[in-house]
């Protein structure tokens, strides 16, 4: 299993896990953010699966995006997008 966490600035921290053997480039990972907030991270991985991007949507209405590996935010989501930390 692979595990990760993501924090919303000034707010909550969410955790999730997935099967590292999943061969699909796009996976949906359930996330838990304490007792009351849940959600999903839609993760799109590039070749090699060490680089990619994710969109997170939570049950409390919060949304976020992040990148990992060697990908820049602008490469994943384009120029001019509002960026969160």
Kindly summarize this structure in a few lines:
By secondary structure, the chain is mainly β. It is built from 1 helix and 6 strands. The protein has one helix at 73-77, and strands at residues 2-7, 13-18, 26-33, 37-45, 52-58, 63-68.
What does the secondary structure layout of this molecule look like, with pairings?
Elements: E1 2-7, E2 13-18, E3 26-33, E4 37-45, E5 52-58, E6 63-68, H1 73-77
Residue-averaged pLDDT, rounded? 89
Estimate percent helicity.
under 10%
What is the element string, with H for helices and E for strands? EEEEEEH
Main sheet properties: 6 strands, antiparallel
Q: Could you give the count of β-strands?
A: 6
Using the CA coordinates, give the radius of gyration: 13 Å
Strand share of the residues? Answer: over 45%
Give the strand order, joined by hyphens, for the main sheet. Answer: 1-2-3-4-5-6
